[in-house]
Amino acid sequence: MTINVAIVDDDESILDAIKMVLEGQGWRVRTYASGEAFLGDIENHRPDCIVLDPHLPGLSGADVVRTLRNGEMRAAPVIGLTARPASALAVEVLAAGARVMLTKPVTADELIDHLDVALSRR
Amino acid sequence: MRRVDLPDRQLLDAAPDAMVVVDLDGHIVLVNKQTESLFGYRREELLGQVVEILIPERFRDRHPARREHYFHAPQIRPMGQGLELCGQRKDGSEFPVEISLSPVQSDQGSFVASAIRDVSDRIEFSERRFRAIFEQQNQLTGIVDLEGIVVDANQRSLDFSGLERADVIGRPFWETGWWTHDSQQQAQVQDAIRRAVNGEIVSFQATHRCPNGTLATVDFSIRPVRNEHGKIVFLVPESYDISARKRAEDALLEANENLERRVIERIADFEQAKDEAEHANAGKSRFLAAASHDLRQPLQSLGLYLSVLTRQLDQSHLLSVSEKMRKSLDTMGELLDALLDISKLDGGSIIPDKRDVRLQELLDRIVTDNIQQAKEKGLRLECTASDYVVHSDPGLLERVLENFVTNAIRYTEHGHISIECKLCDGVAHISVSDTGIGIPHDDLDKVFEEYYQLDNQVRDRRKGLGLGLSIVKYIARLLDHPLSVTSDLGRGSRFSIAVPVGDAITVAEAPTGRPAGAHTRDPVVLLIDDDPVVVDATTMLLESIGAKVYSALCGDDALVHLAAGVRPDIVISDYRLPGYNGVEVVRRVRKATSPDLPTVLVTGDTSANEIKAANLSNCTILHKPVDTDQLIALIENVSTESGPSAQAK
Fold it and tell me: Complex ipTM, two decimals?
């Protein structure tokens, strides 16, 4: 069964790089530049796991996680990925239910390891 | 009284002085030839006249009384002691005389014989001498009689106020042009004359009007002059022009005031500059922090792209290129970490927690962490055993020494690195020396500067970050531990830090590190914050590491938990709370629990100093946004170090 991963980040190169890494794993990846775009597409593309930057334009990362938790996708694990792990927004995303908060830069192997763990605990 | 006959006229004519004999009524009965030539009268004109004809008119009124006074107790004596006596010639001219009186008794009755000598020559000499002194005086001076009438004034005094002799001589001193510009001073002068007549020397600062209309400041004095019998005979007023001195004094005073004002202005300028510099520095720290965060984004993408690329490479020479790119990216990541560290150290968000630390435990950790790298380069890493206890923040001190050691390994190709500690005057000098490339003498004082290494041609730019030693510098400054470096180019370097010695007894009771096998259990946290979102988020975070969290929205709620039997291992409180602030909450919580209850106070930028001022022991201040790793580390530390706590629930 193919694994669907959603990546939400406002940095285009991050989206692109992660997509390439994860597609290299044989996973199906969809990228979103905002929380609104992600939530708007969630019915079409039901992700098994979400990689999320807490700092987003518009809806914050925490808003996205809370919306997710209140909907059908409550079980999909969220992995935070941030350049500012000490920020309130990062803490809020954790508090809202993210599985873990990774600090940029992470290596491809670290990211895949964390996703593997999250997916195995689904 | 002797009885003699009136002398013969011929005999009288032979006498050198003018001789005038008067009867008891003052009528002239006899004169000699010298009298005629001295006074310009013929004998017939004088005989039968009262003697006052020979006296200047202004003295005539008072003379008869004096004459009669003499007749009542006649004796041979000089006349008018202490007074300048004047005769008046027939033509009205006056001349100074000396007169000696003798009573004469004859058949015709009682008479008084006066011998009168013209002393013009003598007076002229002494007058000249007096004038010479009088006029040479730098000050303004004159003579005033006991009635306050001006008798004389020197030319300088007249010129000073543009006055003529006639303006002042014979006039009351206080009504002269020196004083008329100021009625208050006139009264003062009048009073001074009165006091001087009674023997007092009076002086005060005054002003005289100058011909150009300006007022000159003078030191004025008036003193009595006494004759040889101690009787006051006249007064000498003097004024000394102190305008120049006064101007100098005023100028000096003004200069002083100016200087004072300028100093105050300069201090204000400095303070403003300091504020601006601090503001700029804070801005720089914020910029560094923001830059290090933002730079992580492209670094992240680069790393991921590289890993994608690497997986698709099968040619070994391309793999080595990608490996080099990986190392460069790692270095960049370290550089960003260092930047963030500096921004934290410089921004004041790291507060050292100094305590007594067993140095050996700390050195052992450093050796353990670095021995492998040293071995890989074929270097010996030696550490001389040390029993010392030092007083410092163990974490920060360890970073300094760790930095010394990694630098030493980095810049040493052969030989060894040794860690030593020497005690001197209660200070432990911990040093790390190497047998590496060394540092040129001229550069020694620059090694702790940021980016020193990047500008340095001798050191290899690919090695190290150039920020390590500046982090060391910031930490050493924060800890107040002086740094030093010595080096012999091509032979090696020695970096030292001087740390005060601590108390071995204290350290025995307070282990510094996490001892192996320490009891670990889930920590109990008392969390106080008035923002429910923050409370929820923090609670979830702490529960994720196994902590038991009791939360409260204000201090009173926290005390309710305590009343219910909750015994926290640590209290985490926001500083700004409704009711009483975080410091007060902590004080009350500690009162109910333990005076040293580990504490974390969370604050925005503004209240850190207020918390520091409260001087709470065992208290860590965290700035918003809270570094979650730091918070978790604090909680975990508490759960390791503290014993099991009693808990009702």
Answer: 0.74
Contacts of B299 in chain A (CB under 8 A): 104-105
Range of the domain at B97: 9-122
Q: What is the mean pLDDT of residues B389-408?
A: 91
Rounded distance between C-alpha atoms, residue B193 and residue B179, angstroms: 14
How many domains does chain B divide into?
5
- CATH topology (fold) of A4-120: Rossmann fold (3.40.50)
Put simply, whether A121 touches B (Cβ < 8 Å) is no
Distance from CA of A92 to the nearest CA of B (A): 6
- What is the percent of chain B with per-residue pLDDT over 70, rounded to a whole number? 88
Q: Is B514 a member of any domain?
A: no
Strands A28-32 and B28-31 turn out to be unpaired
Q: What does the domain layout of chain A look like in residue ranges?
A: 4-120
pLDDT band at residue B279, thresholds of 50, 70 and 90? confident
User: What average pLDDT does this structure show over A2-20?
Assistant: 92
CA gyration radius for chain A? Answer: 13
Identify the closest residue of chain A to B626 by CA–CA distance. A86
Task: Give the position of tokens 């694990």.
Answer: A77
Cβ contact (<8 Å) for B296 and A104?
Answer: yes
Q: Which of B292, B293, B545 to mutate to test the interface with A (most CBs of A within 10 A)?
A: B293
Yes or no, beta carbons of B628 and A107 under 8 Å apart: no
Choosing from B300, B322, B346, the residue where a domain stops is B346
**A85: chain B residues, CB-CB within 8 Å:** 627-629
Residue written as token pair 């890493």: B381
CA-based nearest distance B591→chain A, Å: 31
On whether residue B649 sits in a domain, the answer given is no
Note if the pTM is more than 0.90: no
Closest CA to B409 of B443, B451, B376: B376
Q: In terms of domains, do B456 and B543 share one?
A: no
Rounded to a whole number of angstroms, the CA Rg of chain B reads: 54
- Give A88's contacts in chain B (Cβ within 8 Å): 534, 624-626
Residue of A20, A27, A60, A102 to mutate when probing chain B, most B C-beta within 10 A:
A20
Mean pLDDT of B188-197: 94
Of all residues in chain B, the one with the smallest CA distance to A23 is B308
Residues B412, B460 within the same domain: yes
Element (H, E) at B552: strand B548-552
Q: What is the pLDDT of residues B473-519, one digit of tens each?
A: 889 988 999 999 998 888 899 999 999 988 776 554 434 443 333 33
Rounded to an integer, the average pLDDT of B243-271 is: 88
Closest CA to B306 of B284, B332, B287: B332
Reference B95, options B104, B103, B87; nearest CA is B87
pLDDT tens-place string over residues B536-556 = 778 877 877 778 888 888 888
Most confident option among B63-72, B357-366, B514-523, B598-607: B357-366
